[in-house]
Amino acid sequence: MIEVNRKGEVWVFAEQEAGHLSDVPLELLSKGRELADQLGVPLAAVLVGNKVRPLCATLAQHGADLVYLAEDGVLSHYQTASYTRVVCDLITAYKPQICLFGATAIGRDLAPTVASAMKCGLTADCTDLQIGDHTDAQTKEHISKLLLQIRPAFGGNIIATIVNPHRWPQMATVREGVMRMTVAEAGRTGKTIKFPVNLAGVDLPTEVLESQRRAKKVNLKGARIIVAGGAGVGSRDQFRLIWDLANILGGAVGGSRAAVDLGYVDHDHQVGQTGTTVRPALYICCGVSGAVQHRAGMQESAKILAINIDKDAPIFGVAHYGIVGDLNEVIPRMIKTIRSGASLSDAVTGASKA
Length: 354
Hints:
Elements: E1 10-13, E2 16-17, E3 20-21, H1 23-39, E4 43-49, H2 55-61, E5 66-71, H3 80-94, E6 98-102, H4 105-118, E7 122-126, E8 128-135, E9 142-153, E10 158-162, E11 170-174, E12 191-194, E13 225-229, H5 240-249, E14 252-255, H6 257-261, E15 282-286, H7 292-295, E16 303-308, E17 321-324, H8 327-339, H9 344-353
Parallel strand pairs: 1-4, 1-6, 4-5, 5-12, 6-11, 7-11, 13-14, 13-15, 15-16, 16-17
Antiparallel strand pairs: 2-3, 8-9, 9-10
Helix pairs in contact: 3-4, 5-8, 8-9
């Protein structure tokens, strides 16, 4: 554990693979910029890898004042032990007050390992981060300008606000898509600080011979229209209706976790707390009950149309428009109406009256 440093920087771990940044660190830099400005401290990105210096410019354009660059051939591929040593050495040397990681496969492995080594707290899968005050219920001690780490708890039944008042750095992981990515500011520059890598005594039990990556089948974050199906669709064969409606609208196909678990659609299409967070212009959900975990990933959509046979389904609580009916009857009517040249609004009106 390092001492509490209230002048410490806000850090974002700039996750990259094969020299390519994922969206998560760029999204976190947007939120990090906001937090750092509130605290009156610099925002820094931590870039670990091999031959990744060209990425420093991108990080600066997305808001980083500083980039801590740690390069070494051993760091070409992510391994827990080597990356943990580098990040812990950086934290010990520069004493940040906040460290943010993406809740990716790498972030979910690295962040808790670093937190354990530094003997500080970690809040996983945050949906919001704010700066605020805290008063200890027992000691009545009032502490200002803490990181408020906000996330669903107890199966999404409550929203918990978690603080680390005494053991720093304050650490959190955030899922992809939860924070809005700002547009890169062309010409913005930052300072790059080359950090010496010391991996003496680090045992790497795995040798990476080859790395293969599979591109996602669908870009849900970039889709303007998403048609999503839930467990109420009934089967993988019936899920063809979701594909048909999405295709005629020029949209992407999404699914709830229940639909994915039942094998109706692949995990790449999952929307929600354990899938992708989306904000399309139109989100049509069919046979989705509206569990809080799913709503957390789509409730910021500009317009939401829900189709469900259960008039009391929670999804109607966040929908702008709702059709109570059997999706097996409603969707074919909508498709037929759209194919006849009618607008989507006319199709919805016709399906709801049928």
